[in-house]
Write a structure and sequence with these properties.
The chain has eleven helices and seven strands. It is an alpha/beta fold. The chain has two domains: 141 residues, Glutaredoxin, CATH 3.40.30; 132 residues, no CATH class. It starts with a strand and ends with a helix.
Amino acid sequence: MLQASSRSSRHRFLLVAFASLVLGCATVKPPAATALLPTQHQTRTGPYCVFTNAAMPPDAPAIRSLQSLERQLEATLGIRVPPGTEPIEVYILESPEAFRHFLMFYFPELPTRRAFFLAQGTRRVVYTYQGGRLEEDLRHEATHALLHAAAPELPLWLDEGLAEYFEGDEARDGLNAEHLAHLPDDFESGFIPDLKRLESLRDVRKMTPRDYRESWAWVHYLLNGPASGKAALLSFLADQRGEGDPSPLSRRLIVTDSDPAIRLISHVEHTREASLAAARALREREPTVRFQDRAEDVAPVPPQGKRRSFFGRITGLFGM
């Protein structure tokens, strides 16, 4: 059974067959069946092997984004790919058109997306294309790949919530502006976060956009809220990587917080206010640039009492 994760539609799919997966980094000459994928250049960095058709320098933004993600996951969650693990294969196609053609040929059953992650046994593969959101897409899908290598049985909500958290660069510190903008409307409509409900989700196709927002919000709260929340999350992740306590995260939170949902709503509101305040402060610190606009060319107004002749008005109209 194959597990897949997508970007634009934020779905993971269970596929029955995967007949056309390309060979990995150890392959010297991929078979002809992989002609739709980039294979001319390989860049090996950390746990990744990046395939492209155009040479990619070691300090390219895409490479740096993958490297920073690996460091960030280890520093934040204590997660790193075990030594000897098969490299994560990353295929970056040249254009959206090439990517769509690849999807139609190999995965016609999947909906349109910008990137996706596939896992089969020990194989972990990320597919995407060159575009304006390449680094974000790479970080999202590579988060799935790194998590799968270290803890392949993570709950669906946590897998997606962590990917949403780490898809932004390190400077954003897990902030997802899109989710942060919509969550207050969710709360005003009467929605109450329910981690136990999220934990019951098993089919990504049943996850709504609000489920993704809530998953991100729980992760952000656990990592940036009270210290007890982060301790509970790290303990849960450690148990997922071994044979530790199987109790769900919602049950662990109740031990230190009788009503974590209320605290989550408060955390989101505080985070949004702080984000808006930081944006205002940044605008105030930036120097004001004044533009001197050039007014439309108009004929000068003649002095009062001196009406221009018809010929004068015509020549003025043409700038003469």
